[in-house]
Amino acid sequence: MNKYDTIGIDLVSACCNDISVMAAKPLTILDYIANDRLKPEIIEEVIHGLAKSCKKHNIALVGGEIAEMPDIYQKNEVDLVGIITGIVDKEKIIDGTKIKNDNVVIGLPSSGLQTNGYSLARKLLFDIAKYKIDDDIQGLNKNIGETLLEPAYIYNQYIQLLLDNKITINGMAHISGGGMVDNIPRILPKGCSVKIFLNSWPILEIFKVLKDIGNINQDEMFRTFNMGIGLVIIVQKTEVEKIKSLLANKIDIYVIGKVITGNRKVILA
Predict the structure, then answer these.
(1) Is position 97 within any domain?
(2) Can you tell me the distance from the alpha carbon of 147 to that of 135, in angstroms, rounded to the nearest whole number?
(3) What are the tens digits of pLDDT across the range 56-86?
(4) For residue 253, what is the domain's CATH number?
(5) Is position 99 within any domain?
(6) Could you say which of 63, 92, 121 is where a domain stops?
């Protein structure tokens, strides 16, 4: 697509979401950029995306290292790495230990693939279906290239809003590589599993397209992709209506499951 700014946005999103789920407020991001040969126009676009996203979310961008390694990277290939720091009072860290049976699982929507599943998506769209990046598919609002480059959401602003309003959150999971199946169990205490209610949120069209092309079974889809849910919040039932009220008109909210007795697994039902 010759478009390099959205990877900067995605890097900030991934970093922020990974620490925000522990209730940390992001402070700084240190970047590392490497490619085959330094091309100022590409580096500038990457940094523009980083800076734009950091400014929007009040994060300081600390310039790290720029490396040129022609024997390591292919032409126009960019390796982008970020190290994020954040702050949270130790006693306010959210780590899932307070999750209990009968807690409610709330899901906030993703913008699309976000930061996971691209190897399979490229295989399906370009190798099997033989699509081109500027092809249109019925049901998608943008062409394939634009759909795959849709920037990931940052959830920190919503998380901080809930915490500032004294919402008691027992656990949160950023749904990245591994989908709900791999990410939710990381925060579950011993004796707990999560039942996810299928059809309790709208599946984005891109996931339907990918499933149809590869005839992929449901379990594999949920293991590879976020399936339209980018953040999971686990709370007591009494907090659900308060959360809906606080986030109304800001982002869609779905009750997508509940905590049940089990051995730290995700059950699709």
Answers:
(1) no
(2) 11
(3) 999 999 988 999 999 899 888 889 999 999 9
(4) 3.90.650.10
(5) no
(6) 92
Least confident window among 122-126, 138-142, 190-194 = 138-142
Domain extent for 134: 104-268
* Tokens linked to 102: 């009968």
- Each residue of 194-214: b (16+ CB within 10 Å) or e? bbbeeeebeebbbbebbbebb
Question: Could you read off the pLDDT of 179-192 as tens digits, one per residue?
Answer: 999 999 999 999 99
Note if the pTM is more than 0.85: yes
Which of 114, 115, 103, 116 is closest to 233 using CA atoms? 103
The number of domains in the chain is: 2
Q: Are residues 214 and 136 part of one domain?
A: yes
E-only strand ranges, the chain: 25-35, 60-68, 78-87, 104-109, 171-174, 192-196, 229-235, 254-261, 266-268
